[in-house]
Specification:
By secondary structure, the chain is of the alpha/beta class. It has 15 helices and 13 strands.
Length: 351
Amino acid sequence: MTAEAAKHDDSIVVGVPTIVSEEEVEKRPKAKKMESKDKQEKEPDIYDLPGVGAATAERLKEAGYDGVMSIAASSLGKLVEDSGVSEAVARKMINAARDSLKMGFVSGEEVLAKREKVKKISTGSETFDTLLGGGFETGSIVECFGEFGSGKTQVGHLLAVNCQKHEPSAVAVYIDTENTFRPERIKQLAEGAGLDPDQVLKNIKVAKAYNSDHQMLLAEKVKDLISNDKLDVRVVIVDSLTAHFRAEFIGRGTLAERQQKINKHMHTLLKLADVHNVCVYVTNQVQADPAQFFGDPTKAVGGHIVAHASTFRIYLRKGKKGSRVAKLIDAPNLPDGECNFFVETGGLKDV
């Protein structure tokens, strides 16, 4: 048979061996390694954790643990209470969850990469946005405190609208403790922002809290809206944070218990902000400090517990000619400063 015929006959092996380059040889095992690596890096399930069977997994899901991350971020006592397992088993579950998610030390470069996911929600006022480094930041708690009429609730309504300006699917959650939510005001702000008022109202989920325990429960239920209802929650507004706690815990004898409950509530909100990249905006009442003889005697309720848990703290007060003054008094990466603005029908306006 001629060499030409041999080329077209697959059954005949030509004496000259097929030469495969070293690069092609290296690619084959690498592809297999990449596939196995992807399988290894796949996030583990709750059932993969030690001590978790069908009954325990069911109890965990009923208690709101929707994944390994929620177990890794849980405290030991809370997990024992929710799952019904022993303390030793709960500790093994938490450690295994943290190991699988690599929740140890990371480099500053990795933290910077994570910070790129942070979004800024504009207030509509250039000076206010500049004061906050571009707007209200997701993944953090922003506390605004001030006397009545200083504009705290107006800012809350504004955030519920403006979070939908560039993300039509964004949802705002409004926990109302003082009967201050007004849909009519939302419609005015939506028209001022050039948005459809009816659609904006549909994307705001409102719940009235009737006491402090109900308020804490509603904060815990927000993660169900994200996990179960698959809503793109971008802002959680609590207006106001301390009203119920202040009314229910009266006198110095109840101060320790009140502060413990507020601390637990703030940590729930902080975890919600960090895990789901949500901006948590809380308004806070004020009181007059009788020991302050000179200067402004106004100080926020909640003491150091609320102050330490808040990422950004803003003091709102009334200015001249009907204006409002926002003073940034605490931020991890921004200098202190203040700005002036007017609250108008369509939103905020710079002075």
